[in-house]
Every structure is written in C-alpha cells, then in structure tokens.
Amino acid sequence: MREASAIRAEAVRRLAERFGASAVLDAPTQIAPYRGDLMYRQEEAELCVFRPSSAEMLSEGLALLADLPILLVPRGGGSGLAGGATPGAGAASLVVSTERMRTLRRIDRDACLMVAEAGVVLAEAQAAAREAGLHLGLTHGGAGSATLGGSVATNAGGANVLRHGMARDQILGIEAVLADGTLIAGAAELWKDNTGYSLPQLLAGSEGTLAFVTAVTLKLRAPPLDRQAALFGLAGPAQALALLRLARDLLGDAVTAAELMSRSATDFAAGMGVAKVPLESAPGWLLLLEAERTSRFFDLAAGFDALLEAAFEEGLAGDGVFAQSEAQRLGLWSLREGVAEAMDLWRGPILRTDCAVPLGQVPRFVAGVDAHVAALGGGLRAAFFGHIGDGNIHVNVMPPAPGDALPGKAALSEAIESIALSLGGTVSAEHGIGLHKRAALRRMKPAAELALMGRIKSAFDPANRLNPGNIFGSCGDDAKGAPEPHKDAFRCSRP
C-alpha cells in the first residue's frame, strides 16, 4: 500500500507542478465522489483525480506519467450501471475526469452535425441542438448527468433506439487520447469516409479500455414537429409485437418508441405510489407506442387514428387511450418512467437485468423467465418493462416485502442471462460490461472472439493501464477486482 501511495503522490506532484493545483485532486473529501458509479464504489483505492481542460492538456499529462505504474480510469458523469468508472483496490489509480472539457465547439445546420467535447452533458447537447433548430437522436434516462464522452464510450441506448439507434449510430467522428498521451485528432465531420478501419466505431462501446474520448462529432436531424402517443392494453408480448408491426406498416419510420410493461410491473409501481394505469380494464400487459413527424406534410394524428382503429379491429388490443395533448402524452410516459422510479424507491433487495433477445423471441424469453421465477417459490415477483422495439426487456425480481431476502441472487441472474443466450440474445443490451458483466461475457462470447478483443486491447494499450479489469478481467484474476454493488446501487437509474 505504501508503494501505491508513493506512486500516487508522485503523479500528483508532477501534474500539479505542470498544470496547477486545481487540475489534480488528492484530498480524501475531494476524491470521495470519484470512487465509483451508480453500481460500485471502491473505498480502498489509492487514487487521485486529474481534470484536464482540453485534449492537449490530457495528452501532455499522460505523457508526463508514462513511466509511472499507475492505472488510468476514464470518468464521465459517473452515472454508469456496470462499474466501468470504478478504480481498483490496492494499485495506484489516476481517475481522469472530463468535467472541465465542456466546450460545444460548433453546430453546423447545413451539414446537420455537432462537434462537442466529452464533458458536455447529454441534456445540454440536446438543448443546444434544439436551439439551432435541429434534433440530437441520442437520449436515455441519464441525460441530465451523463456526458457525451461517457455515453459514446459505453454505447448508451434508451427509449428511442427504435428510430435513432444506439450511441454508436449517432457518431461521425471521435477525438481521443491513448494511454501514452498520443492524441488521435479524429473528430471528423464527414458523413462518408470509406478509408479502411473505422476507429470511431471501434472506440464507441469500448468502455474506456482503449482510449480516452475527448470530443465527438454527432449526427443531427430535423426536429420533430409533432409527437403522438397511445397506450394499449393487451394480452401479452406476442400481441405487442404484432401491434408494433402494424404501427410500422401504417406509420413507417415515424415510430420512435415501443415500451412494454407487464401488469406485475405497473401494479408494483402503483403500490409504490408513483404511477397509475389510465385504462378502465386491467390488462395483463401494456404497450406504449410513440411516433413523431418531422414534415409538415405528414398528418401524424390521422395516422394514429388509423392505428388505433386497426388495432381494435384486428383484436390486438382490448383497451387503449390516445394522448389528446402534450400533457397527456407526458402523462403516458410518466407511467413508463414510474415503473423505473418504483424500482429505485424499493428499499429491499432487487435483481435488475439488462438482457435483450431477437424481437421474435421476446415472448419465449418472458415465458421462460416467468416459469423459472415461479419455480423458485417464496413469493418472488418478476416484473418486466423495457424497449420491446429493440428486444431489450428489463427483468426485475423482488421478494414480497422489502425486509425479505432474495436468495441465490447471482444464480438467478445467471439463469435469466442463460435464457436470453439460449434464444440468441445478449447479457448486456445497453449498459455495457464493465466490472458487473465480465463473467457473463465469457458465457456469451466464443473464446476466439474474446481472444481477438484482447489483441485489439493490447494494440491500443500494451501496458494494460486503461481501465484494467473492465470487460476482460474475471473476478479474482485481475488488477481491479469488483467490490460488491453498494447499497444504493440503481437508486438514481433510469433504464
């Protein structure tokens, strides 16, 4: 520990001498917020925090420390759910925060793009795009705290992936700095560039294991002129998929979101006092559909009327409500968001998952999980909600009361992941691998693919200094063993 402390002290000295004391944090009270994310905290880490204000400053700072055996931990807004911004225990760690890299360099209305530094908060970027008369398609529940750099590095998803895609789909270019300080000035503004390997696409979703993202060029789109939403009561996921297919047939690419909720999830939210189903019947499942128009020549309201009529005529829905105003539309979304909020407010043990399966397999996934949880007994409740438009259904399992135990949590998580994998799915749809899903990744990926990923990691970071333990490590055999999730994990999350 003394050796790690001495390494950390030397890093602080070098950075402070070159950039001033305010650029590096070292006091216990200063570094406390940087010890983890919403999932994990590492109280035993020997860390200091470097806060560069530019890519050039970061490049020079890392070069100054190139001969020190100090681990490097990229950090954005700290709102991740996989432990990806958690320093390791024992070894000296430098947390590199992008909080001072907040310049929105430019918005080009003609080229429909934005160039912004990594520390710009997603909600601020969205607002800037709106002010310029454009729209940033990247959005998710952590928009108020998550940064652009973190959202891109983790390939964040969200409710609008159905129309706009994941973070990776929004990128034209990325500026980045390697662990040795090499600056890759690649925040290009080209919509077409077919010149070999795409480094921006490789860095997106790399979770800080290959390089520090310092700036991004993001695609912008025409802003929505109108949004329409409806909530349908239906029998199950199979009917939800049929209704989504009908919506696409009638509305085309205007469909932006399709959110599925089980009765168990909405009843739980109602019991927690945060949501109420605005339907007269008590359906087993609910589907929230939303669409938007960007052209004044498209009558979206008429399209939604036709959708509702066809849904009832074909027997896909037994009940439904169509938002007649913006306030009503937001009210429908408050139900969906209320389900997630209820999970946050639950003060007992809870298992939350991030699996996804091919769309056609969603009914089998739900049925398989339901059967497995029921077989466990003990009054366990499985609640389902999430983005059926991209197959990402969040499973939440709770005991009957907050004071009750949730036995075999790790085994239950593995069982749910195994059901998803058996259907051609994934163990992590939108929150990444980080520390949390490393063992699950090994169950999912073939050895040859994992080996190839490791060789890519070695090419970018041969000394394995960048976020070691994330993605590639397995519990107990890496320099960054994962602590237990802290007691308030997920309390501020919005899947």
Provide the fold topology:
Blueprint: H1 2-19, E1 24-25, H2 28-31, E2 46-50, H3 55-64, E3 71-75, E4 92-97, E5 104-108, E6 113-117, H4 122-131, H5 148-153, H6 161-164, E7 171-177, E8 183-184, H7 199-203, E9 212-219, E10 226-234, H8 237-251, E11 255-262, H9 263-271, E12 285-293, H10 300-313, E13 319-322, H11 326-345, E14 351-352, H12 362-376, E15 381-387, E16 392-398, H13 409-422, H14 438-444, H15 447-460
Helix pairs in contact: 8-10, 9-11, 12-13
Domain FAD-binding PCMH-type: 42-223
Biased composition (Basic and acidic residues): 477-495
InterPro entries: FAD-bd_oxidored_4_C, FAD-bd_PCMH, FAD-bd_PCMH-like_sf, FAD-bd_PCMH_sub2, FAD-linked_Oxase-like_C, FAD-oxidored/transferase_4, Oxid_FAD_bind_N, Vanillyl_alc_oxidase_C-sub2
Q: What would you note in describing this structure?
A:
With 495 residues, this protein is α+β, with helices and mostly antiparallel strands. Helix content is 33%, strand content 18%. Among the domains are: 2-100, Uridine Diphospho-n-acetylenolpyruvylglucosamine Reductase, domain 2; 104-219, Uridine Diphospho-n-acetylenolpyruvylglucosamine Reductase, domain 3; 226-343, Alpha-Beta Plaits (2-Layer Sandwich), CATH 3.30.70. Strand 15 and strand 16 (392-398) form a beta hairpin. Helix 8 (237-251) runs antiparallel to helix 10 and helix 12 packs antiparallel against helix 13 (409-422). The longest helix is centred in the C-terminal third of the chain and has 20 residues, at 326-345. The chain starts with a helix and ends in a 35-residue tail after the last helix. The relative contact order is 0.13.
